[in-house]
Design brief:
Helix content is about 30%, strand content about 20%. The chain is α/β, with parallel strands linked by helices and about 400 residues long. The protein has a single domain, classed as Alpha/Beta hydrolase fold, catalytic domain (Rossmann fold). It has a 7-stranded mixed sheet. Strands 1-2 form a two-stranded antiparallel sheet. α4 crosses α11. It is globular, with a radius of gyration of 21 Å. The two termini are about 25 Å apart.
């Protein structure tokens, strides 16, 4: 699922109202959840419909016929091998029947980023509006804090009287870095700890702690305290779950998705090593720093439908803490030339490289869709133009790319 550079979305904000104008004859627009852009080609391969083998936006008899014709050992590239285990068998048949019928509409990058902006700005003086077609169904007791997350549920119109009804589609939206506790998560790159859901995977201490923090967020209902983990365990196999976040929120999202697939019954959680993400679970991240080692990244790279990552190539954050690949720590030194990197940042990067080398750990960034946002011009009197550019490329750039406005207030 890519972003077409010719898309334009102009928004006007009055209180909590959001207006979108989309201009491009090649763009398919749906009103499922606000202003959504998706090319016609991308629509046929939605994040929710792994089993739509003939790409007609439904799982039906022709798909079953294609699956049966590929029955037996197969290459990983065979679409009917829904769980990517090298063979088409009863497990793939079971996965197909779970998706039987019309495919749910995919959540576009534009909508996902609007959700991120809503959560990141939730407690600001100028909150960003909640995307139409969704409502908050779970939020923690704390009004604002580290690892904050909110659960949204999709709404629709019933056939009887047109009243609004809740749909079995949820979104966990995780806040980006907001305070010093979040910054500790960002910087805790050693040690790397074994990540049980994925064979050979290791995840940084900061990502591990941040994941635990999110899962243990508490919501009190009628005097009963329910964690986010409790909420997840209340979901059913017919429910669909989307996870998203910007920056640290994206980092946590990349770890939370396989954690859920491993532990939560509704998503086939069997506490056995994962070979794929289930059909009713997917994640999309923006500007996420790396969470784990190469084995962790490769697992997500092998999920081209269930996992999507988006990066601005001029953003410092996705380059941390990868030691090689297209996005890596060494790129940070040359990102904003001729503006020089501050000596304090240079020292920080060097200390982190030495720390990782001493601990024998390395990080690998996942594959993703990259765009390049032009460098901005710091306002007159800016004390440190390099630091200003960091914020501009990490916040305003994504807002412009996915929401059509360069004036979103950064968190």
């Amino acid at each position: 699922m890519g972003i077409m550079n010719s898309d334009r979305c102009t928004r006007s904000r009055t209180g909590k109202r959001l207006a979108c104008i989309c201009v491009n004859s090649r763009v398919w627009v749906t009103a499922l959840a606000g202003c959504i852009f998706m090319s016609a080609a991308a629509r046929a391969q939605t994040m929710w419909c792994h089993a739509d083998l003939n790409q007609d936006h439904q799982v039906s008899a022709p798909d079953l016929s294609m699956l049966l014709s590929d029955w037996g050992p197969s290459a990983h590239s065979v679409p009917a091998d829904l769980n990517h285990d090298g063979q088409v068998n009863g497990e793939d048949l079971e996965a197909m029947f779970l998706e039987w019928g019309l495919c749910a509409d995919a959540i576009s990058p534009n909508t996902a980023y609007a959700m991120c902006e809503f959560v990141d700005m939730l407690h600001s003086v100028d909150p960003y509006p909640l995307t139409p077609g969704w409502q908050v169904v779970w939020e923690p007791d704390v009004s604002r804090g580290s690892c904050y997350a909110t659960v949204l549920q999709a709404t629709g119109q019933s056939s009887k009287g047109g009243e609004a009804v809740l749909l079995p589609m949820y979104a966990i939206v995780i806040q980006g870095t907001q305070n010093h506790v979040d910054a500790v998560f960002d910087m805790a790159v050693t040690p790397q700890l074994p990540f049980e859901p994925i064979s050979g995977a290791k995840v940084g201490q900061g990502s591990t702690d941040a994941l635990s923090c999110v899962l243990n967020l508490v919501r009190t209902i009628d005097g009963v305290k329910l964690t986010l983990t409790d909420f997840l365990n209340s979901l059913h196999a017919t429910d669909r779950l989307f996870i998203t976040g910007h920056s640290l929120g994206g980092n946590i999202s990349s770890v939370l998705a396989p954690w859920i697939a491993f532990h939560v019954p509704a998503f086939r959680g069997r506490s056995t090593t994962l070979t794929y993400l289930p059909a009713n679970l997917c994640a999309m991240t923006f500007a996420a720093p790396t969470a784990g080692n190469l084995a962790f990244a490769e697992f997500l790279n092998n999920e081209p439908i269930a996992y999507h990552a988006f990066f601005n190539s001029n953003d410092v954050v996705p380059n941390a803490w990868a030691t090689n690949g297209p996005l890596n720590l060494n790129r940070i030194h040359t990102l904003f030339l001729p503006t020089r990197i501050p000596s304090a940042v240079n020292k920080l990067l060097l200390s982190k490289k030495l720390e990782m080398a001493k601990a024998s750990v390395s990080y690998a960034q996942t594959n993703g869709v990259s765009f390049t946002f032009p460098l901005g011009t710091p306002p007159r009197g800016t004390i440190d133009p390099w630091i200003w550019q960091v914020g501009y490329q990490h916040n305003n750039a994504y807002c412009a790319q996915f929401l059509g406005s360069i004036n979103c207030t950064p968190p």
